[in-house]
């Protein structure tokens, strides 16, 4: 289908992109380790990647505030991701070369998530798709990517991690080159006005939102960097580790699939409290045991610690002024999901070398502090099209 519906275009692109991300996020630390990189340096490299995403989302993403600029920007970013992910094969085992390609890749990778989410939000606000049902295909792809690469790495070696990621980005490149049936276009003159990030960062509602999300999503830093290494040291094979990561995303898929039905009428406060409690329980268990049964419970809680918080964050952004949505999406990905996770990855690398799995208790504490931050969005003064309009058929 050369001109798919908005739902088909966004969900299919997310499938390709998150397949590659399902390879990158769980297994890149293992690939670095296979190159001879120490645990502390793994933390530094992974943290450097997230820090670079932060810079990209502060300096590059907000410039793409017009709806009609979203598609060209996604195409260039996906092409650059494909090139620089492949460059890792020529970089190892030099730490400086690995750091260089990490920066280049994440400069390209960073804008993709907020821009693709901005595409989804654009169509969702016009009743053309449901965000949860669209985003779940990214989660399904993450499961596929982490499962496939876990098997391939255990059978054929760690370089299969890079080869599989390359395949995912090539597939994404083919998908992003198509035109959706309805192209994104700015509807009002004010939608094309570029908002100033400095003004948004003076808004206490925005600041509270960013701090709250930083605590909840930042608590995943040690998980992203060291859970695979931690579980492998406990004697679990790469294939099981891949299945565990996939199981976590299965719960995420269920939350996205039924979010509109399950959470209709729920306040943002309620969603964030549930997610914060999940953070305390999940990372407390992670610090305490590596038994397979417990790991299953831990991974099923991913839907609570990640998906519910993400759904609440997207609801906050969707209720903002149209010209601020990409800027807020950029800040969301730059600060809580970029800078703060980068900092916590570096800290967790140092902490993991000193204390091992006890570092996860620090992650659990972040959920406790998140309980005390209240966030409510400012109304746009326009009707929520998702609630008052019927979406077009999603097939």
TrEMBL record:
This is Putative 3-phenylpropionic acid transporter. GO terms for molecular function: lactose binding; lactose:proton symporter activity. GO terms for cellular component: plasma membrane. It is a multi-pass membrane protein. Residues 10-361 form the Major facilitator superfamily associated domain. Its main location: membrane. Keywords: Cell inner membrane, Cell membrane, Membrane, Transmembrane, Transmembrane helix, Transport. It comes from the Bacteria. Pfam families: MFS_1_like. It is found in: Cell inner membrane. The chain crosses the membrane at residues 12-31, 43-61, 73-91, 97-115, 136-154, 160-177, 206-226, 241-259, 266-285, 291-314, 326-348, 354-373. It comes from Vibrio thalassae. CDD domains: MFS_MFSD6.
């Amino acid at each position: 289908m050369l001109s798919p519906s908005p739902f088909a275009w966004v969900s299919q692109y997310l499938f390709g992109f998150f397949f590659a991300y399902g390879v990158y996020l769980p297994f890149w630390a293992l690939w670095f380790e296979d190159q001879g990189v120490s645990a502390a340096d793994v933390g530094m490299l992974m943290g450097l990647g997230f820090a670079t995403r932060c810079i990209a989302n502060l300096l590059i993403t907000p410039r793409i505030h017009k709806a009609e600029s979203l598609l060209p920007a996604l195409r260039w970013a996906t092409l650059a991701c494909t090139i620089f992910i492949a460059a890792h094969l020529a970089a190892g085992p030099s730490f400086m070369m690995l750091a260089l390609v990490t920066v280049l890749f994440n400069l390209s990778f960073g804008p993709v998530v907020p821009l693709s989410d901005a595409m989804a939000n654009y169509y969702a606000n016009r009743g053309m798709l449901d965000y949860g049902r669209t985003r779940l295909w990214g989660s399904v792809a993450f499961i596929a990517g982490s499962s496939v690469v876990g098997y391939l790495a255990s059978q054929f070696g760690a370089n299969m991690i890079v080869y599989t990621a390359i395949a995912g980005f090539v597939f994404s490149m083919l998908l992003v080159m198509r035109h959706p049936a309805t192209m994104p276009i700015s509807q009002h003159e004010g939608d094309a006005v570029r908002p100033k990030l400095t003004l948004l960062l003076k808004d206490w509602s925005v600041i509270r939102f960013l701090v709250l999300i930083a605590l909840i999503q930042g608590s995943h830093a040690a998980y992203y960097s060291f859970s695979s290494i931690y579980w492998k040291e406990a004697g679990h094979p790469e294939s099981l580790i891949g299945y565990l990561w996939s199981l976590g995303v299965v719960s995420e898929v269920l939350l996205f699939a039924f979010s509109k039905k399950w959470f209709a009428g729920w306040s943002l406060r309620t969603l964030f409290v549930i997610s914060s409690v999940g953070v305390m329980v999940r990372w407390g268990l992670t610090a305490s045991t590596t038994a397979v049964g417990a790991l299953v419970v831990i991974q099923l809680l991913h839907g609570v610690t990640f998906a519910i918080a993400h759904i609440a964050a997207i609801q906050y952004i969707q209720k903002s002024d149209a010209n601020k949505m990409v800027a807020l999406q950029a800040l969301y990905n730059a600060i809580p999901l970029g800078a703060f996770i980068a900092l916590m990855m570096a800290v967790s690398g140092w902490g993991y070398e000193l204390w091992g799995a006890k570092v996860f208790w620090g992650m659990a504490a972040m959920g406790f502090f998140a309980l005390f931050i209240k966030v409510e969005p400012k109304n746009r003064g326009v009707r929520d099209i998702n609630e008052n309009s019927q979406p077009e058929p999603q097939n």
